[in-house]
Amino acid sequence: MKKILLIALILTAGLFLASCNRDRSGTASTKLVEWYELPETAALDTTKQITIKFWHRMGADSQALVQGWINEFKVLYPNITVIEEKAAADYGALADKIALAIPAGTAPDIAESYPDHIARYAQAKAPLALNHFINHPTLGYSEAEIADFLPGLWAEGQSYDNEGTILSLPFTKSSEAFFYNATYFQQHGYAVPTTWDEVFAIAEDIKLREPDAIPFGYDSEDNLFITASKQWDAPYTGYNEETGKGEVQLNNAKSKEMVEYFKDKVDRGLMLTRSLNGNAYTSDIMKTNKKLYMYVGSTGGTRYAYIGASTTVFNAGYRAGVAPLPAKDAEHRFQIQQGPNINLFNSKDEQKMIAAWLFAKFMLSPERSAEFCIPSGYAPIRYSAYETEAWTNYVASIVENPTTMQQAQDKLVKEAIEIFLNNGEIFFTSAVFNLSSKTRTEAGALLVKILAYNATDQAALRAYIDQEYQKSYDFITR
What we know:
alpha/beta; D-Maltodextrin-Binding Protein, domain 2; 5-stranded mixed β-sheet; 19 helices; about 45% helix
């Protein structure tokens, strides 16, 4: 409880994020959508039957869980009917379906969406700005409730313009984590690294003992480029202070310095990435005992540090550990947040929007957040979720010295999720605007090209880097 209170005090500054008139740049301001002026006297009309649609792309288990929530919600609000639909098999297809539904007037009232998708919907002014709903005296969140959300996850909802327009709330969130062969680390006396230099010092030591090893892997080149840019203080995307608009900023000297750092490690056989591994996950190498002992992967895929490992490998003592992402240094501990959010749409029907808002709040309650995370490996989005009965019972069930694969998976999931609880301030998101999705994809492709390039000397490498950065920038912005 002391930790929760301390975090709440730290987060007090973050309450400013939900204010109704925040200008991020201090100069030009451009609201992405107009804020719906929800009157302070607004309330749910309990005499009126209201039907709202919730579109998502969840798997069967998560969908069943949400269906149970809808039944619980119906008990609280008998006049609200929630129709949930798995509208697509993946997030991209879901975004396409919603984008087509908006001009047709058939968009859902609430949806599971990534920030880039919401920025796309905003081109039609379709998303509902949540500022006045959040700050509403009876329907909204109190300051203590806002402070209960992990700060980086909450802040993502207002990354769409320079006025602090809040277009989404965190829902099923993940990040990346550093996974390692804990048995091997113990055998060789390695401390869990907290910086990249420490990671590669371990890699160099492994290489001396096992020359054919490639000790470290990174699954997502997109995420590596974005997170390392943040850690290196290298501009990636941002808002122009004069125009208030998002802009591509990745073509700069610090970014190139960052890429050269990781290029050196690839060239020396200390590191590979998923693309350099034939598009296979690097976790598959570690758990099959093939001389890779560390990797960075999604916390949403934590169980895959074990899934697929043979019983022989497990019984021989293979155990995985998990830790926060290594940083450039102690002052630059940042890691990207992932996973979909919840957003609402401006249907022009105040009662439907209030009903959708109440259902969103219900799904984001501490109890439901904990309930969703335990089987999935996603993180509870609120500090109080870690104090719920569901979470405390789960923690109590963990076996500290696992003897079965399931026990080992459960323990690792708990430890991965606790990274969010204990490091809430390190999670970030980049600026979201019409080119942000294209920038992310191109940045990952740019990194792969540079990591795979066989330069004759350092001068040739730097010339190639300059050339490819310019080509990428031109491609994104043309």
